[in-house]
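Hi C.,

You asked whether I'd gotten around to modeling the 130-residue construct. I have! Everything is below, sequence then structure, no commentary in between.
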Amino acid sequence: MSRIRWAACLTAALVAGCGRTAPLSSAARSTLNGRVAAVKTAVANDDVTGATAALAALRTAVADLQAQHQLSTAKGSSILSAAVEVEAQLPSLPTTTTTTVVVVPDTSPPAPPGDHHHKDQGGGGGGGEG
């Protein structure tokens, strides 16, 4: 199933059966449409993380609307079932890998001018006391 098609399943679940149950209030419909649009956008952009977050927001909206008696159990179940189908397909989305390179500037102080010859640091050579 194409990614757009399974995201569209949510829309179909949202509008399916409207004639059999009480119509959704415009506020409830707006909330659900917004959540479904977020899922569709994330899926269309191959954004697995965004789609997962959008599906979580959709589930929360369904639970909230059911608790407020603005969404029937049957309608909510239909939407949640479609969300499960979409979520099952998320691993098939292409993933992108971003590599971040951080360049740390050299903060050591510059050598004083003219200090090209270092004093003997006690390493070798003769001339020691003894």
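If it helps when you're writing up: The mean pLDDT is 74.

Thanks,
B.
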